[in-house]
Structure formats: C-alpha cells, structure tokens
Design a protein that fits this description.
It contains 24 helices and 2 strands.
Length: 494
Amino acid sequence: MLFGFPLISLVIWLPILIGILVFATGGDNNARLAKWVALIGSIMGLLVAIPLYMQFDPTMVGMQFVEYHTWIERFNIHYHLGIDGISMPLILLNCFITPLVVIAGWQVISNRVSQYMGAFLVMSGIVNGVFSSLDAILFYVFWEASLIPMFLIIGVWGGPNRVYAAIKFFLYTLMGSLLMLVAFIYLYNVSGGSFSILDYHKLSLPLTPQILIFIAFLIAFAVKVPMWPVHTWLPDAHVEAPTGGSVVLAAILLKLGGYGFLRYSLPIVPDASEYLSGMMIGLSLIAVVYIGLIALVQADMKKLIAYSSVSHMGFVTLGFFLFSSYGIEGAMVQMISHGFISGAMFLCVGVMYDRLHSRQISDYGGVANKMPVFAAFFMLFAMANAGLPGTSGFVGEFMVIMAAIETNFWYAFCAATTLIFGAAYTLWMYKRVIFGAVANAKVETLNDVSYREIFILTILAVAVLWIGLYPLPLTEVMHATVDDLLAHLSRSKL
C-alpha cells in the first residue's frame, strides 16, 4: 500500500488519470501547463513504481502485491493484479522511460501539445496494466487499449506517410490479437469457467490443443516482438513516428510480445513450447542474422535502428526457447537493455533530425566538428548497440550465447554473428554521420546539444553503463521466478 492505495493499481491508474487531466488543459494556448502537468505526472508515476522494487521479495516464488476484486461476476472475470520477477522490471522500465519522452518533446512538439503529452501518460498506465494483469480478459483489454495511444501518436504527429504507417501498425497487431482471444475462450471452457492466468498454469492439456493454443499465442506475440517474418510493420512505424513515439515503441511496446511468451506460452502450453522450440529458435536466428544484414544496407538512420531492434529482439525469443536459466534471464536482461539503448539511439537521431529535418545518412558527415558533446553520447550508445563489454548491450547477449552453447554450438555460432553485424551496421552509420570533414553547409549550421538533451542522454548513459558493469540488482529479482518457471516446464515433461 502507498498513500492508502494498492501499489499496482496506483501504478496503473495514476498515469491514466493525470493523462486525462493533461487532455483537459485544452488547446495549444495552455501548452506550457500541459507540459508541466505531464512532466509532474510522469515523475509521480515513476516514484510510485519504485516501492515495487524496494518492497519486492526476490526469494519469494509467486505473485506479490496481489489485488483481487470481482469485475464481471456472471462470466467470472476479476480485477486481478500481481507482479513477479518477470513483470516488475518491465514496469520499472516503462515508468522510467515515460518522463524522458515527455522531456524529449518539450520543445519539439508545437501542435496539439496536451493531446501528445497525455497520450504517453495514458499509454504508460495501460502498459503497466498489461504487465500486471492476472485475469485473461483484463489482460486482453489492456493489451488492445495500448494500441490506441500509439496509433494516434503515429497518425497525428508522424511524418508524411503517417496514416499508412499507423493503419498498418494497428491492423497487424489487432489481427494477431484476435486469435489470442479465441485461445482465452477455449481455456475458459476447459478450465471450468475461469479466466485466471494462474489457473491456466495448472492445466494439463493434450499436445494437439496445446499446439493450437501455442500458435494462437504465437501470432499475437510474434507481431508485437516483432519476429521475422511479421516484422514489416515496424520500420514503417518507426520512420513515420515522432521521436517520442519511436522511443516508446522500441523501448516499451516491443516488450509486450516477449512478456507474453513468458507469461502465457511457456507456462500454459509447456509441451507445445518444447515441441515447437526448434521452429522458434530457427525464426529467432533468422531475425538475428538476416535482419542484421538488412540493417547494414539502410540509408535512413531510423530504419536502420528499427531493423536493429528486430535483430536484437531475436535474442530475446532465442533465450526463451533454450529452456535454461541463463537463456531466460539473459533474454530478460536483453529486453531491459534494449529499452535503454534503442530509446537512446532514437533520441540521438531525433536530436539531429530536429536540427536538419533529415534522417538520411548521406545528408550528414563531420557532425563531431560541430557537436562534440553529442558525438560522445552517440558513440557510447552506438558501442552499446554493437554489444561492447561494459555496456548493457553485452550482458544479455553474452548470457543467451552461453545458454545456446550448452544446447547446440551452431545456435551459439549464428547468434554470435550479431556481434559482427551489429558492429558493422552501427559503427559504419556512426562513422559516416559523425566523423570526417563537415560534409555540407547544413551540417555547418549545427549547434551542440542543449542542457535538456544532455540531461536525457546522461540518464540513459548511466542506465546503460550501470547494467553493463553491475547487472546484479536486475538479475537477482528474476532468479526465483525463472527457476519456478523452469521447474514447471520440467514437470510437464515427466
């Protein structure tokens, strides 16, 4: 409890209510008020989430901070919330990123400011609801509701092809989710009329229904990750989205798919997960290798980072289906790390785009001569994106590769190619944009980062280095939950 309110409900509903308050500030005449209310609200959202970590018991197996109330009694639907070592770090990541996104749009967004800021706060609360729901229908409501703010952010404040990108994003994710709802209805019937996710974990289904349920979940979660070959919506969405939208899309929304695999696919249909693990590993390795090569030939910086996200998220699904503590914990670390690094990379591109209004690599060159402080930050994040030891980008990938070696050397060999391809596309982009002589008159006009931009990039730099040098505070909260999940998977094979 905090201030007399249940903690998880506070983490969900406080940002949503303040987001609605931001909407109520009105039009652009009150833009300054909207910004300050959004900033204060996002910081409050982070502050109420911190006790989730401080009071979390890392040795405890099962859900903590549980809330349980009847919602729709006739269909046995409940307002059932709780977190464990899997969901808690993701909630913290979400609450951490939201204030940075609000600050990033402080001077950049000039039209419909209250709607822009409010959309991010509402989305932050909704995503926390996804990560903490223990009722399948409640989860589904939050899952689908998360589409609406991002759809508006892309469609209203995006680039020239924003409508196409927003509709493509919405249709891909909505169509995938419908099969998930069908799977929930089936599980409701076979479980004796329960929508409780924890009840589903106790089911012992034949292999064929498990495979069908797994495929239904796979379509929904694979689109969100996104896995190859259902990744094509992501580059379009990133290119057209405003900087803040790209940051939240990469840092937060892509994690919903990974979370779904851990909360639903593995524990509910463990036999099907084992049976189809070869297919999942294959799709993951294709994403790591093939999409890495596609990133290498991109001329648009945002599109390059978008394809980089697909490649790095391939490590996440690979780690999940190796069925080892190193693999799953490494994949979790990779999700958190990717949130920091990809968010930082998109913010760096946004810094340059705000000045030159171009994302094309060929329009830059010699930026370090005019923006040396920015070049130093961008170098750190580029190195982290390439998996440099000492940064968070290395920790998760190293753990997954170690787990892959224990399973199959060639899995590890293919996965490790990301250290080559990641360095190739990231550092080649960095070299062409940052180094050399000043390329043109537009670059000559650049001014270095402002104090506001330095503040945002410094916080992200600290996060990237902290996890890279001392990941224990992150990994220790996962141990008990991951071990319990692996024990559940082992029992299903007996």
